[in-house]
Amino acid sequence: MSSPPSPSSSTTPPKPINVPLPFEDEIKWSQICKVISPSNIIDNPIKLREAFNQLENGSAGDFFVLYFANHHSKVKEDKFFNTVLPVIQRLAVKLPELFSDPIPIFYAKKAQSITFTQLQVASLMSHSFFGTLIEPRLFCSSFSFPNANLTHLWLRSKSGLDDVDKPLSSVASIAECVLHYFERVSELSEEQMTQHKITITRRVLPQEQVPNWSECENPLPELKIFSDVKIEDSGCLLQADFANRYIGGGVLMGGNVQEEILFAIKSECLISMLFCERMGDNEAIIIKGAERFSQYSGYGWEFKYAGDFQDNTERDEEGLTVTEIFAIDAIPSRIRTDQFQHEIMKREIMKFYIGIMGEGDSLAPCASGRWGCGAFGGDLELKFIQQVIGCGAAKRPLVFMTFGDPKQQANCESLYQHLLKQNIHTGQLFNALLQFNPETDVHVFKFLKDFEFNRPTGMDAV
């Protein structure tokens, strides 16, 4: 008879609690510092490429060789290597001084929050620049965490840079935004960056706290709709990130849509990718205090960095900009009718609600729009109604962007005015939505305009 397995062979190793930082391995840290220390003068793209090679980051340095050789003036190159890169090096070696306390890993299903100074974020970002952050995906499940080092972005941004006549790709333009972040950081004093803060929160809603949508008697939310305003230009203090369940989405891997652009122009958001596990259905990630540094034009493959942006958003007494980003991931809908399944509709309303929930009856408006309606295949009319229901339940006004589609703006406004005339509450709208049949009803808005809200629905128990 064989003996029972030993405990060591039958138990799963415990999950690490904190993110390992590069200086915790003294030998490795010594090797890193030889490369990144300001005493190691890196004053041209060839030396920078050699530094990346010494750090075992392969050809990430090729991006800088091609970028400065073919797409920027000698003046721009000199500023980067004489002013910006030395600051990146200095901030990177300050890491042990800045992090006496560990950075917890934000695992799924556990609500957590952490506040960094802008200086701490800049130090971590400087290690990300060189690819020396220790990514949780390497010591946890590789399927649970995103990439976190900027070297992934440098590698993907070099394609096409050898053609001096070819405009920069959207991926290289994302990289330009991040490089501009470092340029702005180089202009700030450490005292300034110590006073400014950034808070990242993983919000988890227990099942027992999920509202009963069917019985919600809150009135429909206040609503404004724009076709020519971007979320980040709305002036709202709560702004949607149409997120991937892996925070940051494909920003380091060639992505170029709403979340990736947001993380490019507000580059401090990138640090959330170091410690946030992918989101579950009842979770959202909230980022407060991230400053915007870049202008941009275009979208998708047409995205382009368009210069400096001065973020004059006021800060609170703790040094955080009062703007918050709520990251929420929609369910991809490969087959159109799937998104109308009742459980999926409830999940999407809950997900949006988690991102915007707050305390009190006078909450600031949230800015959102075509959440999940691009590559994820979401029906815009359905997504609009889901957000109206979520805001109604949360008692929060909604500012909805149709992103250059005035016809859709008019359609949304027309339906909203019709619903107001019906004098219905949020639960009634939810119950009506559950009766939509995608096999026979083509358009959600037409269905709701024809719906008789005063007749019994029989949906009270849903």
Write a compact overview of the structure shown.
The protein has 462 residues and is α/β, with parallel strands linked by helices.
Task: Provide the fold topology.
Layout: H1 7-10, H2 26-36, H3 45-54, H4 62-70, H5 74-93, H6 95-98, E1 112-117, H7 118-130, H8 151-157, H9 170-185, H10 190-195, E2 197-204, E3 223-226, E4 238-243, H11 258-265, E5 283-288, E6 294-297, E7 304-308, E8 324-329, H12 342-356, E9 366-368, H13 380-394, E10 398-401, H14 406-421, H15 426-434, H16 444-450
Parallel strand pairs: 3-10, 4-8, 4-9, 9-10
Antiparallel strand pairs: 1-2, 2-5, 5-8, 6-7
Helix pairs in contact: 3-4, 5-7, 8-9, 9-11, 12-13, 13-15
Describe the protein in words:
The chain has 462 residues and is an alpha/beta fold. The protein contains 16 helices and ten strands. The chain has helices at 7-10, 26-36, 45-54, 62-70, 74-93, 95-98, 118-130, 151-157, 170-185, 190-195, 258-265, 342-356, 380-394, 406-421, 426-434, 444-450, and strands at 112-117, 197-204, 223-226, 238-243, 283-288, 294-297, 304-308, 324-329, 366-368, 398-401. The termini are far apart.
Biggest pleated sheet: 8 strands, mixed
Number of helices: 16
Question: What would you call the shape?
Answer: elongated
Strand content: 5-15%
What attributes does this structure have?
disordered C terminus, eight-stranded mixed sheet, 11% strand, elongated, disordered N terminus, 16 helices, 462 residues, two-stranded antiparallel ribbon, alpha/beta
